[in-house]
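Dear Dr. L.,

I hope this message finds you well. Following up on our conversation about the binding site, I have prepared a predicted three-dimensional model of the protein together with adenosine-5'-triphosphate. For your records, I am including the exact sequence and ligand specification that went into the calculation, followed by the structure tokens. Please feel free to forward this to your student if that is useful.
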Amino acid sequence: MKNNNIIIKANNLERVYDNGKIKTIALKDVSLEINEGEFVAIMGPSGSGKSTILHQLGLLDNPTNGKLIIDNDNVLELNEEQRTRFRLEKLGYVFQSYNLIPELTTIENVYVTAMALGVSKEEYIKNAMEVLKNVGLENREYHLPSELSGGQQQRVSIARALVNKPKILFADEPTANLDRDSSDNIVNLFRKLNKDFGQTIVMVTHELEEGEKADRIIWVKDGLLDKDRIKKNKH
Ligand SMILES: Nc1ncnc2c1ncn2[C@@H]1O[C@H](COP(=O)(O)OP(=O)(O)OP(=O)(O)O)[C@@H](O)[C@H]1O
Ligand SMILES: [Mg+2]
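The resulting structure of the complex is given below.
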């Protein structure tokens, strides 16, 4: 399922970090559009601004300048409460470290995000079961994170990110702590989620091989977009 609805439109995003002594210009002037159903990789050297871009697009940070429209909402104008709700309903996140709660089982780790939205217990258990099946963890519902492999823990964190059916899934180097096989597994899972459910995905990665599995690679250099390559033959 692919169409040409613009889901993210960023104009002239700038992010300057100022710790009182030093100003670091992490993003200089970034404008981009991402379509609904696209699987986009963000690549570039260490320190080029990849995570900073992801944090702006994912509403985890605020740009010092610029405009950002997500799913037709002028998101930089939302108040704190609206922003939290927007993130819970429409955005999902996966990070390098899985950030699972060690005392909770797989299924509990997944449905905490749904509980936060206030859906009924019956519904959040059903939704959690369904996403766990989609990430291939249907037999690990009652394991603790310490009883799972790194790749499986990352799958739990992906299920958690997907449980509220987000419009956009953001991932910042989701495979950086994994071996080659588990990394392939995770990126292939993203590919499948994109193909089967039209999930929009924005993924930062270091690995060209992983970036090549996306529909498009946006290259970042010194806080600016460098190259933007959309593949002719989408997967
Ligand atoms: N909180 C912060 N305070 C000050 N400077 C920061 C902060 N976060 C990031 N930076 C700076 O902004 C620039 C971009 O950082 P960013 O984390 O976006 O890079 P990156 O491309 O994700 O790198 P990596 O591949 O190493 O993760 C870097 O020069 C970094 O030092
Ligand atoms: Mg980074």
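In brief: The mean pLDDT is 94.

With kind regards,
A. P.
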